[in-house]
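hey so i finally got around to running both of the ones u sent me last week. sorry it took forever, my laptop kept dying halfway thru and i had to restart like 3 times lol. anyway pasting them below in the order u listed, first the sequence line then the structure token line for each. didnt double check formatting much so if smth looks off just lmk and ill redo it

first one:
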Amino acid sequence: MLLNLLVGLPVMLLCLVMEAFIVAQCLRYYVRYDTRAGETVEPRKGFLWDFLVLGLVMLLMMLGYFVQIGMWAGLFMLLGEFEEFATSAYYSGVTFATLGYGDIVLSTRWRLLGALEAGNGVLMLGISTGVMTAAVKEVIKHNMARPQRGMNG
């Protein structure tokens, strides 16, 4: 059990640091949605801008998931748990998303790593839910402040 923690916790820490960086980047762009250097500027106009802001946030979060899944899959490969990266990535993705199909499992020696990755995934999915909620809130706030100009405004 201790060996599992010594191997898994550094990967989990790396995932947390990477996710914090991604969240900081998302916050950096949508918090400044309508302000620069403390001055209010005209809100960006139109559906396309709203779509791009939300789409970029979702894309960055998904990219973060894929990288983290790949990191865990790489660890499983290094430990000799899987012969093919595709199988390792599949197991990692199912575990990260906490689906837990059970069609592929880790050996008894390393099975606690699956629980660590699942905990990592739950945390990351929760963080991204908060980030997306904040991003949607910003878009709604700016749409409410935007003068009504019909459907194209």
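and the second one:
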Amino acid sequence: MSTADFAAFSNNAIAFASVVYVFAFVAHLAEWAFARSVPVTAPAGSSAVAAAEPVAVGTSGAPVTSGVDTPGGAAGASYDRRADEGRAEDGRAGRGPDAGELSGRALSVEKLGRIGVALTVLAALLHLAGLVTRGLGSDPVRVPWGNMYEFSVAGAFGVTLIYLVLLRKYALRWMGVLVTAFEVVVLMLAVLLLYVPAGPLVPALHSYWLVIHVVAAVIGAGAFAVGAMASALFLVKARAEARGTLRTTGYVARLPESSVLDRIAYRVHAFGFPIWTFAALVAGPIWAEYAWGRYWGWDPKEVWAFITWVVYAAYLHARATAGWRGKGAAVIALIGFATVLFNFVGINLFGSGLHSYSGLD
């Protein structure tokens, strides 16, 4: 295949990956739409709901009359117990769909979730193929991150990669709808607004430190994106728990408890932080010295990479301090991800400096 063929294949692979991400998003959206009619048996974090309407053990929520006060004595008491048991049975059935129908819906929810994950894996493979062939489609062959289009595609792949790697370990399928939505938005914007034809790298990028620096940055930023999603969902879940407004159905009801979401966000950020530290404060300066003859020059890109590092260092410190766990730490994490986005979008589009090659041309 010629370089033109590889470049064309890359464009098609990214386009098909975008379409498959759309299908994955729809599958996860349908998963949660079906789940709205399937009550959670013991919804995580539902203690506030249970505490809102205390019911005596063994009752159905209606006043229980004793056998002494009931006409007919023991027979009346027995009748009341049978009535209570019938009402309890009605309550267990939810006065709605029967158990068989609920079981069928639960099975549909599970199938849709598995389809969403399978489509995400397929989209990720197409995504990776598009990245690899983008590099092969240049003359000479190079790494596929020489402009903002390629950085967008590579950064989006990093988010999917982190999600899929951690999917089984932390049971993150509930995050699939957010991850696939993120991928659809980023890839569509990259293809429609940022695309430039494949071409050679600018002289400053001819260094193997570019590979090390960008790979580490992509992995670190991907972890920060997944951590930001977990932090945002933590705020939603914690608010519902605090207000006692949790339901037994719906997306929020099926999320893990807020404490679990907080712990997941912390662990993902703790994984990404040292990688970002290496990318921004070790590999980046070494590459800068090779390309421009100095390790640090207060270029806007360098400054914002350092600001991002400071914010996430503050997050990890705050999260390790008991008084800052929960909402305060989650807000700092979201601010940190906002600096990541500004570093990529704002600086690339509106800034200037030695990193100007990372813009649209």
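quick thing i noticed on the 2nd:
Residues 3-46+98-358 form one domain.
anyway thats it, ttyl
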